[in-house]
Amino acid sequence: MRADRRRWVAPLVGMAFLFLTGFLVGWFARPSGVQHDHANDSKLLDFLNEIQADNIRQYLRKFTQLPHLAGTEQNLKLAKEIANEWEKFGLDSVELVSYDVLLSYPKPEQPNYISILNQFGNEIFNTSLTEPVPEGYEGVSDIVPPYNAFSAKGQPEGELVYVNYGRTEDFFQLERDMGINCSGKIVIARYGKIFRGNKVKNAILAGAKGIILFSDPADYCAPGVDVYPSGWNLPGRGAQRGNVLNLNGAGDPLTPGYPAKEYTYRAEQDEGVGLPKIPVHPIGYSDAVHLLTNMGGPHPPDSWKGALNISYQIGPGYKGEFSKQIVRMNIYTSNQVTRIYNVIGRIRGAVEPDRYVILGGHRDAWVFGGIDPTSGVAVVHEIARSVGTLVKKGWKPRRTLVFASWDAEEFGLLGSTEWAEENAKILQERAVAYINADSSIEGMYTLRVDCTPSLHTLVYDITKKISSPEPGEETMTLYDSWHKRDNWTNERNAPRISKLGSGSDFEAYFIRLGIAAGRARYTKNTKTERYSSYPVYHSVYETFELLLPLDCVEYGAALHKYTLNIEAIANRHPDAISRYNVSFDSLLNAVKNFTSAAQAFHQRLNELDRYNPLEMRMVNDQLMHLERAFIDPLGLPGRPFYRHIIFAPSIHNKYAGESFPGIYDALFDIENAPEQDKAWDEVRRQISIATFTVQAAAMVLMPLA
Amino acid sequence: MRADRRRWVAPLVGMAFLFLTGFLVGWFARPSGVQHDHANDSKLLDFLNEIQADNIRQYLRKFTQLPHLAGTEQNLKLAKEIANEWEKFGLDSVELVSYDVLLSYPKPEQPNYISILNQFGNEIFNTSLTEPVPEGYEGVSDIVPPYNAFSAKGQPEGELVYVNYGRTEDFFQLERDMGINCSGKIVIARYGKIFRGNKVKNAILAGAKGIILFSDPADYCAPGVDVYPSGWNLPGRGAQRGNVLNLNGAGDPLTPGYPAKEYTYRAEQDEGVGLPKIPVHPIGYSDAVHLLTNMGGPHPPDSWKGALNISYQIGPGYKGEFSKQIVRMNIYTSNQVTRIYNVIGRIRGAVEPDRYVILGGHRDAWVFGGIDPTSGVAVVHEIARSVGTLVKKGWKPRRTLVFASWDAEEFGLLGSTEWAEENAKILQERAVAYINADSSIEGMYTLRVDCTPSLHTLVYDITKKISSPEPGEETMTLYDSWHKRDNWTNERNAPRISKLGSGSDFEAYFIRLGIAAGRARYTKNTKTERYSSYPVYHSVYETFELLLPLDCVEYGAALHKYTLNIEAIANRHPDAISRYNVSFDSLLNAVKNFTSAAQAFHQRLNELDRYNPLEMRMVNDQLMHLERAFIDPLGLPGRPFYRHIIFAPSIHNKYAGESFPGIYDALFDIENAPEQDKAWDEVRRQISIATFTVQAAAMVLMPLA
């Protein structure tokens, strides 16, 4: 048991460490100058040695004793506790920053549930009000029952329709192939594939009066694995909480674009961004079986069938003797403006205090947050302690370090987005990088890194200097261990690095403000989990650089790949491409220019006078602003707060990042567009915007003046 | 005659010089360092001595021989000539940068005119097709006849309605007080008070089929002054050309937000930004008399009467025996995508090549452009020559200097806006200031400066070091001469400085990108012009600073004044203010914070180590980004490219700048709003946005990290 614990703690240390160390380079400079010497390198090792896996384990234990739902007393208490410790650790300043944002809670005195009604309107089945409390947590109060935050209130009644995952294509299929109209119905969708908020949006568009979300064992139980607590599969009465907003990066629904402070104008609640107009409620599969059994209507295609022992018929409504039964949702969840608290800690940069490296992760959890988010919180905490220890000894980072413990991530990334809004002007001029620490672990298989292309090289360099945490690989580097398990593709022989998508607090920093960003975690095996003895963990990172470790050549390669990908998608319509004069030549050309500019920039780095502080600053400014150059102030169509032209959260794929999202969205479902002329026109327009943006980014890298 | 010439040339030298010198400080540094010494100060004097009033006169003469309409061969030739000379002058690089933008020309073979038709549909009066060519220019071809660029084509016929200046309030008065409906009518408005594009917009909103614009002598002739060529009053057959777009800063109507390059997607012409849907045509007052005489309908209030010897009756249509007459417009002007050329010259900064000071002005003219723009072009040219001369001698500016000769300003600030769009990402990170040089002279009375508040102090400091150009004031400073003629207000004993409004090429730089900007010119006397002997001109500027000469304390004072102004406007509705809970306390508080931050910033400047290049750079970055902090990426309501929260061109006042435009527009006409709740809600929302923006700007000035 103890071995197991260390087994999962070790990767945490490595992962969170990964990016940060890259930006801690140039760390140990004296306040008055930019000198560096070999003595400093050994200080860097002091820092690495300071980090203790056992501390991380203890923090994780301590921070997961009680629920920490955003907006509760308990979570404010935790904020204060973290702030106090950061101060004690030796950070230069620590503050609680509050916002008054729209949150959503079930009513304790009037619980949410779903009923089957018989022909007389009597409730003949009701879903569970709570989940069974896990062993060891029996005495804990304040566990919020499963609910979908921001659900509309209401008691809609109606026939049930099963809509598979509730994706656009599912509703298309329902309407066109099966001839089923969801208007006035209550729909039931299984969780998975896309963000739940998009399921709700699709249900509303289809005219549904309410939507029930359930976790099907096909999606939430691995074969051959036991349910919790013996294994990590979801128990039948476990249900997935989660917000059902369609915020698209707006932050607090009532104050889109601006921080939710005392003075801030708030929209009326019925005009808030992304609030669903219908009731939504999540249930476990034990309850889902009751609702789905005896449904009538067509039998679904195989891809619509989950793993429950039922026929998954579509409806509407029930069959045979049950045909008079309908379903009623009883939802009393209510929205309320509530104060939330970020903890912001700073260590002032000694040489360039106006350049910020930000390490942030959320603190709020739906309940205990054992993985999400506290596996990240614990790592951030230990890094703060270690850095603080060095600061106490008189060392200073070159650039300012910002530590952030965000609140209300679970309610739509609210704490991080409000802080980004409040500090946008400063951040876009000063922020070098944002590193996100949410769940540091989502499995025990190997490393998973999502980051902007200019960080690829840094990630590879660092992982080559860290030992593998895997048993039997003590002499292998993390890079090799990772590479062995997850090679990128046929064309690139290196470990896979993914695009940043959505679903955590980097969003406002990366997608809205254009700050280079990344995250790392240990991820799960696609095969079943193996339990075995713990590995030994060592890490060494020895370089020292004044130059920001951002690689623009790598960005060029990524842009090239993305362009070929998107061109290939367009080429699925060869006739239209030629009829509507759609060409990717301009974009390919811009990417070529970008790549040349990046290579030339890289070349010039060799000629840099690294002892000339202004020269270094200018080159670093170019690197820092490269990511910013991909921001279009006009935003993506209909998503004004998603402004990164190269990356955006996918509408079509849960948590994934889309490259060239403007073009991609214009191409998606183009064959269903009501007017082909306009649809292809939009594709051309988006290609033109992408071309301009890549071209403008190339200009950032060109020789100054 | 020669005396007169020098009389008006002298102020030109001083004016254009004014801002630029402020930014040329720190100019003579060696490439490898930041040292400065007293020898450099004398080099600065060399520069001042290099400028020759006679050169300016010669350039003005040379550049005004022929018409230089945007998009013509002639104007391209001038671009090449200027580029060649800049190269010869010694600029480091000079390039022609082209864009393909929507321009608009009359058809040579099918001229525009307006007719009065009798009851049989015969033309019984037609307006002039051209203006009489001035003496000395008889042989010149390619003089474009008077027209309104971007007018819709068409031959609408209808009754005429006189709409005074065509302002919102004029149309209100017509409809509500006089009971006159403009729907289906042709309206005739006099030029003046508001931008002509807004008159057209108002006419369209009122349902008019066409609009005729005329120059009334009440607005375009000073009493007691002769018409050209004996005096400067407008002759009766002279007509004002001008575009009638409602661009609101969008640049090329077909590519809003993006540069009009080969690869750029273009909207269909009927979807272009700000293109009027009805014909528009300008006429002189000789023609206007014919159209207005014999009109029927109500007699107008006195404020609607111009200086023509007619009754200015409103219509619709003519009275008595003329009542069957109607008016027909015959407009064939057509829009076409046309290539335009900016000339961009650069002198690379020796120490901070990535910090740009931009001096720009347009080159295109409706015809000869004697004042607009060539009085500015000539000054820019002489500055380029003088600076180039010093560069040839081996001197270098500290920061990069950019010289720009913009094209197609007259068609909607197109050249400057497209370049701003193409370079937006770089400019917002690197541009220190934008100085505009359009008409350098619009009268002979005294100085007129429009600039951002952080430049106030610089303007005062410099004018205190330049001699007055006024006769009999040889021992007086320009500051004193100016102060004597135009004291600010009772509360401030200093020469008046105005807000930047619209109407020239600074717009995209200041209002969209938030770059500190200013312009200066000699302005006219409100009394009649005096012709007298010429003054002697001297200028001396001797300070040397590494610190950007931007004054944030002055910005604080300006914000305070603007807040009190806007609060006073709101207080005209005391009942509503209290009913709808409208308060300016949050804004006043933010302004107070801003002022404290500015004062503290200013204080800290005393403690700066001016020999620490990084420290200087960081402080300068704060100053540079202060103006940027006032930019809201979401823009003003309905005007996405006007993004400066403190300043925007006024909708209500020709070329003027509005402070707190969001709040102002929400308050304007609030009593006519259909729903008072929503209208006051919008006021509250705008106050909140202003509060946030001022607060965020304060943060930019706060201690780093």
TrEMBL record, chains A, B:
E.C. number: 3.4.17.21
Membrane topology: Single-pass type II membrane protein
Function statement: Also exhibits a dipeptidyl-peptidase IV type activity. In vitro, cleaves Gly-Pro-AMC. Has both folate hydrolase and N-acetylated-alpha-linked-acidic dipeptidase (NAALADase) activity. Has a preference for tri-alpha-glutamate peptides. In the intestine, required for the uptake of folate. In the brain, modulates excitatory neurotransmission through the hydrolysis of the neuropeptide, N-aceylaspartylglutamate (NAAG), thereby releasing glutamate.
All copies of domain Transferrin receptor-like dimerisation, residue ranges: 582-701
Principal subcellular localization: membrane
Entry keyword set: Calcium, Carboxypeptidase, Cell membrane, Dipeptidase, Glycoprotein, Hydrolase, Membrane, Metal-binding, Metalloprotease, Multifunctional enzyme, Phosphoprotein, Protease, Signal-anchor, Transmembrane, Transmembrane helix, Zinc
Family note: Belongs to the peptidase M28 family. M28B subfamily.
Domain Peptidase M28: 342-467
Stretches assigned to the PA domain: 157-245
Location of this chain's protein in the cell: Cell membrane
CDD domains: M28_PSMA_like (cd08022), PA_GCPII_like (cd02121)
Necessary cofactors: Zn(2+)
Entry GO CC: plasma membrane
Native source organism of the sequence: Denticeps clupeoides (denticle herring)
Keyword set includes Cell membrane: yes
Reaction(s) this enzyme catalyzes, per UniProt: Release of an unsubstituted, C-terminal glutamyl residue, typically from Ac-Asp-Glu or folylpoly-gamma-glutamates
Enzyme class: hydrolase
Pfam families reported for this sequence: PA, Peptidase_M28, TFR_dimer
Chain ranges passing through the membrane: 12-29
Name recorded for this polypeptide: Glutamate carboxypeptidase 2
Record GO biological process: proteolysis
Quaternary structure annotation from Swiss-Prot or TrEMBL: Homodimer.
GO molecular function: dipeptidase activity; metal ion binding; metallocarboxypeptidase activity
Cross-referenced InterPro entries: PA_dom_sf, PA_domain, Peptidase_M28, Peptidase_M28B, TFR-like_dimer_dom, TFR-like_dimer_dom_sf
Mitochondrion keyword on record: no
